[in-house]
């Protein structure tokens, strides 16, 4: 949590915590109270160790289930980034359906909100219109992202770049249609040397309430052969192959 907030603020941070009694934003025709937003207290930090200390003191708030953790982290990251910077490089943070956008994913993983998942800057335009710069992920992300949108065509259309597919740490947020999961390796050296990728284990947890224990995958890339296209693959297998 501290890393996400500090990275968004580029060396500073704002931690949003709920007040137990005070209400700072009254309900109005323009604002409906949600039990969290109207009670926010903003605590600014200029030192990393102070942010970590306060987070440890109030970590129980982020562990409540159900609880306000997602809202608090989103508010903290956005305000740490700053509205002046955040508003210039984001689309809508939350869709009309209530789901988070690519901008939020990029903000939380890289510290910079962007609706584009590709590497660097790409230009969109044609002969009749001036090229428009679309700024995606500028640096290798600490955490990774893997997508599966139901079929290969839709998945490729998301234009997910290698800076998210190949993160610094072997941890990937997995989005499969409307379901999310977490894929990770206990060996932190996995991403440092390609030879570590010959044989390794991945652990997978999904947001589905049907999964009561972790899934452990044994991955071997030695002597890799193309799979018979007639044989069905599991969705998780397809997701890993996009990497």
TrEMBL record:
Transmembrane segments: none
GO molecular function (one): K48-linked deubiquitinase activity
E.C. code: 3.4.19.12
Pfam families, sorted: MINDY-3_4_CD
Protein known as: Ubiquitin carboxyl-terminal hydrolase MINDY
All residue ranges annotated as the Deubiquitinating enzyme MINDY-3/4 conserved domain in the record: 2-242
PANTHER family in alphabetical order: UBIQUITIN CARBOXYL-TERMINAL HYDROLASE MINDY-4-RELATED (PTHR12473)
Keywords: Hydrolase, Protease, Thiol protease, Ubl conjugation pathway
Gene Ontology biological process: protein K48-linked deubiquitination; proteolysis
InterPro entries attached to this UniProt entry: MINDY-3/4_CD, MINY3/4
Task performed by this protein: Hydrolase that can remove 'Lys-48'-linked conjugated ubiquitin from proteins.
Entry keyword Mitochondrion: no
Keyword Protein transport annotated: no
Class in the EC hierarchy, top level: hydrolase
Family membership noted in the UniProt record: Belongs to the MINDY deubiquitinase family. FAM188 subfamily.
Organism: Daphnia pulex
Catalytic reaction annotation: Thiol-dependent hydrolysis of ester, thioester, amide, peptide and isopeptide bonds formed by the C-terminal Gly of ubiquitin (a 76-residue protein attached to proteins as an intracellular targeting signal)
């Amino acid at each position: 949590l501290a890393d996400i907030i500090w990275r968004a603020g580029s060396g500073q941070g704002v931690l949003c915590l709920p007040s137990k009694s005070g209400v700072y934003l009254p309900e109005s025709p323009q604002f409906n109270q949600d039990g969290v937003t109207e009670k926010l207290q903003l605590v600014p930090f200029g030192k990393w160790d102070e942010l970590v200390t306060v987070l440890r003191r109030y970590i129980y708030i982020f562990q409540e289930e159900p609880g306000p953790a997602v809202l608090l982290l989103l508010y903290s990251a956005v305000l740490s980034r700053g509205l002046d910077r955040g508003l210039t490089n984001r689309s809508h943070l939350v869709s009309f359906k209530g789901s988070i956008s690519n901008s939020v994913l990029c903000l939380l993983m890289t510290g910079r909100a962007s609706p584009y998942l590709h590497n660097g800057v790409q230009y969109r335009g044609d002969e009749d219109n001036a090229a428009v710069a679309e700024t995606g992920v500028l640096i290798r992300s600490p955490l990774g992202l893997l997508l599966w949108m139901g079929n290969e065509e839709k998945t490729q259309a998301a234009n997910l770049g290698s800076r998210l597919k190949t993160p610094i740490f072997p941890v990937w947020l997995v989005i499969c249609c409307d379901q999310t999961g977490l894929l990770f390796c206990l060996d932190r050296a996995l991403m440092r040397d390609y030879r570590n990728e010959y044989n390794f284990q991945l652990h997978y947890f999904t947001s589905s309430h049907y999964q009561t224990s972790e899934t452990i995958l044994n991955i071997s890339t030695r002597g890799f052969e193309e799979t018979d296209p007639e044989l069905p693959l599991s969705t998780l297998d397809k997701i890993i192959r996009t990497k």
